[in-house]
Amino acid sequence: SVLVDGNGEILATYRKLKLFDVELPEVTIKESDTIAPGDALPPVVDTPIGRVGLTICFDLRFPDLYQHLRRKGAEVVFAPS
Predict the structure, then answer these.
(1) At residue 53, does pLDDT exceed 90?
(2) CA nearest to 72, candidates 12, 1, 10, 6
(3) 10 Å Cβ neighbour count for 31?
(4) Is 60 helix (H, G, I), strand (E, B) or coil?
(5) What is the number of domains present in the chain?
């Protein structure tokens, strides 16, 4: 996830911590086969619309990440999925 300002400057980046790995009878999906998880908790950045936190996709299933963002002062969370 990348947060870019109106001038095209990168304000923050975040690499997802929680990879989507699932094995079902009809399909196996393992993100961990092709990508590595990030190594830092999601950032919170001051922007003109407020303090923005970043997550990604499967992170939506893990409330601890959102609790972290709230503790850091996030007022808005972007979660591209």
Answers:
(1) yes
(2) 12
(3) 16
(4) helix
(5) 1
Provide the strand spans (E) within the chain: 2-4, 10-13, 21-23, 28-30, 44-47, 50-54, 76-78
Q: Report the alpha-carbon angle 75-60-29, nearest 5.
A: 155
Residue listed under structure tokens 């601890």: 64
Q: What is the pLDDT of residue 78?
A: 94
What pLDDT digit, counting tens, does each position of 16-39 carry? Answer: 998 999 999 999 999 999 999 999
State the pTM of this model.
Answer: 0.83
Q: State which residues form the domain around 37.
A: 2-78
* Strand-pair category, 50-54 with 76-78: parallel
